[in-house]
Design goal:
Nuclear Transport Factor 2, Chain: A, five-stranded antiparallel beta sheet, alpha+beta, elongated, four-stranded antiparallel beta sheet
């Protein structure tokens, strides 16, 4: 009796499995024979592009540092005589006008450059645009690695074009007196570039920025003292009312300048930021920044009042000299 019940149960299970298999085959066959129905596709939304031709002054700090790095990268590739990379970096019309190829670009453009340092002084661009044209003016210094005379060129201008994917090209420009007028008259066009040259903005902290400003000013004392004189603030100009008086004291000013300081204060005054740095002996430098890379330098040397001990040391030194 037990065997009959077991066999009956097995038959029921087998029957259920067979029924499931039949239904599965029927469903698959039905789906296979159905006519293909079109699938509703979601239409692609057109990507909105922005292309602005209005020219504004460049005042965004991280963009200026990024452009300065891009131009210095161009100069470094020239120093390395990397023809192919220089060729890939240059704008197409500049390549055509100068008959450049991937085999001769650096050779034709390098003029015995060594240790380049390009410094941006002003810039203009078409703000809020997917394709951005940056018109840049500054100066470049070449410092030989093994001594020798420093080479300095002023009013060096570049056009850097950045597309919507952050690819960029560089176009060296001839000397331009009025960069803003040149930028406003330039024929801006929407472009895209292929390649691996990606433009990146660069951030820096206040301490590093102050060091850069002071290093640049100190360099100008040597290579372009008139430009350095034009960077003095009103209070310092009271001590140097003529360029000749300033030039006479350049050696002392150069010795006074410092980039390591004990204290730093930062104050907003109108549209300017005033950075005041001070050493332990109360020597003070003031940097008044109107916009990135546009600043005035104030120099204030505090004479330390000699103590009794200092006076005694001075008298001893004097007696040793006379003996």
């Amino acid at each position: 009796m037990q065997n009959i019940k077991d066999n009956k149960g097995k038959l029921i299970v087998v029957g259920i499995i067979l029924i499931i298999l039949v239904f599965t085959i029927l469903i698959v066959d039905f789906v296979r024979k159905r006519p293909n129905e079109p699938i509703d596709e979601v239409p692609e939304q057109p990507v909105e592009t922005k292309f602005n031709t209005e020219i504004s002054q460049l005042q965004e700090e991280s963009t200026m540092w990024g452009l300065q790095d891009a131009i210095n990268n161009y100069y470094n590739l020239l120093v390395l005589y990397d023809n192919d990379q220089v060729y890939r970096l240059l704008e197409e019309s500049y390549i055509a006008d100068n008959n450049l190829t991937s085999d001769n670009a650096a050779i034709k453009l390098n003029h015995d450059y060594e240790n380049p340092q390009y410094v941006i002084e002003e810039g203009y661009y078409n703000k809020d645009s997917d394709v951005t044209y940056y018109f840049i003016k500054g100066y470049v210094i070449f410092s030989p690695f093994e001594g020798g005379e420093i080479t300095y060129y002023d009013n060096i201008t570049f056009l850097v074009i950045v597309d919507s994917k952050s690819h960029y090209v560089i176009k060296p420009l001839t000397e331009i007196a009025d960069l803003e007028a040149y930028a406003k008259a330039y024929d801006l066009q929407e472009k895209t570039f292929e390649g691996t040259n990606l433009f990146k903005k660069q951030d820096t902290n206040v301490k590093n920025k102050i060091k850069i400003y002071l290093d640049n000013f100190k360099t100008l004392l040597s290579v372009d003292s008139r430009k350095a004189y034009a960077m003095l603030d009103e209070n310092t100009l009271k001590n140097y009312q003529t360029y000749e008086s300033f030039q006479f004291d350049i050696g002392d000013i150069n010795a006074f300048l410092f980039t390591d300081y004990e204290t730093m204060q930062q104050v907003q005054k109108g549209d300017s930021i005033i950075y005041t740095v001070q050493k332990y002996n109360f020597d003070t430098i003031t940097i008044t920044e109107q916009s990135p890379m546009n600043y005035k330098i104030g120099l204030e040397i505090k004479k330390k009042v000699p103590s009794a001990e200092d006076e005694l040391d001075s008298e001893l030194n004097q007696s040793e000299i006379t003996e």
